[in-house]
Specification:
The complex is a heterodimer of chains A (316) and B (295). Chain A is mainly α. In chain A, 72% of the residues lie in helices and 0% in strands. In chain A, helix 5 packs across helix 6. With 295 residues, chain B is mainly alpha-helical. In chain B, a hairpin with a 2-residue loop joins strand 1 and strand 2. The model of chain B has no long low-confidence stretch (mean pLDDT 90). Classes of the chains: A mainly alpha (316), B mainly alpha (295). Chains A and B meet through helix 6, helix 11 and helix 13 of A and helix 4, helix 9 and helix 11 of B.
Chain lengths: 316, 295
């Protein structure tokens, strides 16, 4: 086990934290409502995908809802109309995210810094209007009553607990994938670009293709997360592609800790929990989210996990 | 009824006017964003929320104080501008030494707070704000009926944009501002209080947004979402125009409003996305933006 984790690039502390997280994921459905936990895991994966860009390449994409949302639409549509099995529908969702990410990323990396964020936001808004008008998304109604397709065409997903194990499996698989990417030579180049882009260029790295590859990968995982979510809840709607969703994933990652491995997961748990349990407060949730944004930026920019890591002098 | 390119002329001119009105708001907002970005190097995500706040202040002045449109047009931007000064003094100024992204994140949070509070207080449906008596009615221009208020919005926005442009390009205060944008430490060494200049710049940019909000109040209903509907389009406008040039952002704002209006005539389905499509084309052909310098 330790050998396996070390090969994936986990330090000792990270390995312990990872095992702890897996144990928590395994026991949680017996203590908490599984459907809520599945929502948390889907958003955690989405936030991890987003963190790959902001945390390790320094690119703030303010339009990640587009890839999440279209992943969710395509998985829902194919599962419903073609009767695909769960894993194929989710994978198609991921590929949709990657395809859209290829086009949008290729455009957005032409500009740096703050412009990159504005372009991704504007492109995502274009995708939103497309989703609003295109016939296959169902407009304001979205795609409803998506069946919970059986896994591999045989394993029934009717019980929440079965579906939970699928979602947990998808989450851990892609969590490890992202971690592996970040701790590969490719990931080291990404960090070099984040730290000093001109120097990375002068060292001969083709910075743009590195950025674009990371962007596509992030969009792929975002699409996977969206596809998984639509199958869990049997619905894909405009909420998933709306720019509020883009803001939420930024919030999750910022609150948990930019550039930490476990931060996005922690952030997704808190933000989703807040929405779940304070839902009756209506627009106050928006106000609270705004306050958290402001507090994170002004008071603890390392986020919760980042601050814990700094206290314990470890990198989580 | 005469036709233009196979479309009835009144329809054409009507949409052209609507386009100009939207363009007026794009210009006011992107101008404020450009001024703020020039000095503070942050993108003010709260710009849409402060635009909305301007409309709400005007509405509140009428509702609770009986103060009408004309005083509100001056007072509301001052109040919102002062609020902007407060935001800059207490929060935004702590971010200047950090990555610019944090400015975007902070102002995004501020926008959520302002819009969330407004939604709590007033709901999402919106309140009407009457057109001032002097500007009611319409004039017949021969080829179309022009509602006077709409004409006024376009003229007022053009005048305010030009005054801002002259203030920045032709006055000594503007010269100081431009110098500080280029090289703040040097200007500070000449004895200019640069931090105060930055604060006032933010206040002025925000006041422009609030002025737009008051102008918009009688046209759209005063509602908490009126700013967020605009802000993302304005970001696209800013990417298209580039933030290097004041006049550039004014021209781009009006121009894209007209493009959007004409799209409503020729291909209505695309009217919501046409500005983003233009952005994509500009990014492909001229990545720095129409008026931008390569960075």
């Amino acid at each position: 086990m330790t050998g396996f984790l070390a090969r994936q690039g986990f330090s000792r502390a990270q390995g312990i934290a990872f095992v702890l997280m897996v144990v928590l994921i395994a026991v949680a459905p017996f203590q908490l409502y599984p459907v809520f936990l599945m929502k948390v895991l889907c958003f955690a994966l989405f936030a991890c995908a987003f963190n790959l860009l902001i945390g390790y390449v320094g690119l703030l994409s303010f339009g990640h809802a587009a890839y999440f949302g279209f992943g969710s639409y395509v998985a829902a549509w194919t599962a419903k109309n073609w009767g695909l099995s769960a894993e194929v529908a989710i994978l198609l969702g991921g590929l949709t995210g990657a395809g859209l990410g290829t086009a949008f990323g290729w455009l957005a990396i032409r500009r740096l810094g703050i412009y990159f964020s504005m372009i991704t936001l504007a492109l995502a808004q274009m995708a939103y209007f497309f989703a609003l008008q295109a016939p296959f998304t169902g407009g304001e109604d979205g795609i409803q009553q998506v069946p919970r397709a059986p896994l591999f065409g045989t394993i029934s997903m009717q019980s929440d607990l079965h579906t939970y194990w699928l979602v947990a499996g998808v989450f851990i698989l892609f969590f490890l994938l992202i971690h592996r990417v970040v701790h590969s030579p490719f990931g080291q180049v990404l960090k070099a670009i984040r730290e000093n882009e001109p120097r990375a260029i002068s060292l001969g790295y083709r910075v743009d293709s590195y950025k674009l590859t990371a962007f596509i990968l992030s969009c792929f995982v975002a699409g996977i997360a969206g596809g998984t979510k639509s199958l869990v809840f049997g619905i894909a709607t405009l909420t998933d592609v709306n720019f509020q969703m883009s803001g939420e994933v930024v919030l999750m990652t910022l609150l948990g800790g930019l550039g930490t491995i476990f931060g996005p997961v922690m952030g997704a748990l808190i933000v989703t929990g807040m929405e779940q349990y304070f839902a009756q407060l209506g627009a106050w949730v928006t106000v609270m989210q705004g306050v958290i944004f402001v507090a994170c930026v002004l008071l603890f920019r390392r986020g919760i996990v980042g601050e814990i890591g700094a206290k314990l002098k470890i990198i989580l | 009824m005469f036709m233009i390119l196979g479309y009835p002329a009144p329809l054409m001119f009507g949409q052209l006017l609507l386009g100009l009105i939207n363009g007026a708001f794009y210009a006011l907002l992107s101008l404020g964003l450009a001024i703020i970005f020039g000095m503070l190097r942050i993108i003010n995500f709260a710009h849409g929320a402060l635009f909305m706040l301007g409309a709400f202040v005007a509405w509140g002045m009428l509702q609770y104080g009986g103060i009408g449109y004309w005083p509100a047009l001056i007072v509301a931007p001052i109040i919102v501008g002062a609020f902007g000064v407060f935001l800059e003094r207490t929060m935004i100024r702590h971010l200047y030494k950090l990555d610019h992204l944090y400015g975007l994140l902070l102002t995004f949070g501020l926008a959520e707070i302002i819009e969330g509070l407004a939604r709590n207080q007033f709901g999402s449906s919106g309140m009407p704000y009457a057109i001032p008596a002097a500007l009611q009615g319409a004039v017949n221009l021969g080829f179309m009926f022009l509602p006077i208020y709409r004409g006024w919005v376009v003229i007022a926005a053009v005048v305010v944009c030009l005054v801002t442009w002259i203030a920045i390009e032709r006055t000594s205060l503007g010269a100081t501002l431009r110098a500080a944008t280029e090289n703040a430490p040097l200007v500070q060494a000449f004895g200019v209080n640069v931090p105060r200049l930055i604060t006032l710049t933010y206040g002025a940019g925000v006041a422009l947004a609030a002025f737009g909000g008051v102008l918009a109040a009688p046209i759209y209903s005063v509602n908490p979402n009126m700013g967020s509907n605009f802000i993302i389009v304005v970001f696209a406008v800013v990417v298209i125009g580039g933030m290097g040039s004041i006049l550039g952002s004014i021209v781009t704002g009006f121009g894209l409003g007209v493009v959007e209006g004409l799209t409503k005539v020729f291909y209505p389905q695309a009217s919501a996305t046409v500005i983003f499509v233009v952005m994509v084309i500009v990014l492909l052909a001229r990545p720095a933006g129409l008026f931008g310098k390569a960075t």
